[in-house]
Amino acid sequence: MRRYSAFAIARESARYHTGWERAWRSPEPKKEYEVVIVGAGGHGLATAFYLGKNYGITNVAIIEKGWLGGGNTGRNTTIIRSNYLQDPSAALYEKARSLYETMSQDLNFNVMFSPRGVIMLAQTEHEIRGYQRTAHANALQGVETEWIGPQKVKELCPIIELKGPRFPVLGGLWQPRGGTARHDAVAWGYARACSDMGMDIIQKCEVTGVKQSDGQVTGIESTKGSFGCKKLGIVVAGHSSDLANMAGFRLPMESVALQALVSEPIKPIMDVVIMANTVHGYLSQSDKGEMVIGGGTDAFNNYTQRGSFHHIEETVRALSETFPMISRLKMLRQWGGIVDVTGDRSPIIGKTPLGGCFINCGWGTGGFKAIPGSGWAFAETLAKGEPGELAAPFGMERFIEGRFIDESVAAGVAH
Ligand SMILES: Cc1cc2nc3c(=O)[nH]c(=O)nc-3n(C[C@H](O)[C@H](O)[C@H](O)COP(=O)(O)OP(=O)(O)OC[C@H]3O[C@@H](n4cnc5c(N)ncnc54)[C@H](O)[C@@H]3O)c2cc1C
What we know:
The chain contains twelve helices and 18 strands. The protein is α/β, with parallel strands linked by helices.
């Protein structure tokens, strides 16, 4: 595959852009693969990429029922941060954040990583104590965060109303190297690199069954026929329970819709990302100028991949207390995705009761930020047959052993 470069752009502009290649192939599926990954979202594609890059395993198919990146990966609000409380989470999310720093160079694809800084606002006394505790934990974990007072918050984000009718801004947890990236580009960059390594990305192909013999996975059935494989990686976010059902086991997980919306584009007014977890909303400004706004999940289990009016009202009403200028914006678009939420709000990465079948799920409302770290850790698990240091704490047996990685404050409401 030809590299993208300033020289390539100049060359193509001189010949009317007729020389660009397709970014990835659309091959017919083979009958047998070493590894089949179900789900071409960011996590599935990153897993395939690191299988090839770190372990030289390229006889890989990534099977996607829709189009690649069309699930939560292409629907999220792109917040990247690693300010989690527990050591295993901080290690995994910080690995991911650090891989984002060089992702454009590593993939030769501009993923528009923008480390503009993320603030998680404290609007109650309880939140002050909670975030100061997280700042102390992060210092020990080597994650760069800082507790900042209200005046610094105002300096970083002049449009904020510090007094607030119900909840004044009392300070915040500031992660200066957190930020955003372009979600589609992350999926496209990984897809292009995987295809370049000879992997097959099979789109519009739904997996309908998992084949097994003597407790060992042997392949999958799909709408494009059945393929054999030695190892199977399930990476389907909100549909994880369906796939687990096909493979014959149950997951401690719920699927719910999570929604977001964007305003009309306006001039640059905000160059940080802010999460206000007490009023329950967050916002940032996209490169196009739209205010990107999100809130909490639906309060009931569902597979509805779309938005709803009551959600716009709840989220915008909540945020307009702290950011009054929002009340004067027109909202342009709204959408939803189906997220996979575990009881301790941490992911599941590891083996399953079916031999050769591995799962990576439970990223819930906050897995975009984790894509490269998750792919790195899950590729290791698939290649070695056992989770490595990063993934080991996240096995699903923790729910039987009561060894929870409780991130309900860091992950349950914020993204
Ligand atoms: C509105 C919203 C806002 C969010 N905001 C943030 C944020 O700001 N920051 C953050 O870190 N995270 C955020 N998230 C969460 C984040 O988007 C997800 O955790 C992450 O994208 C999950 O990636 P994935 O690759 O696991 O799943 P997906 O991108 O959903 O990929 C899974 C793929 O599996 C496919 N699939 C399912 N079933 C089958 C089948 N039977 N056969 C074949 N393919 C199948 C699906 O079509 C899908 O493409 C948000 C999510 C939503 C919905």
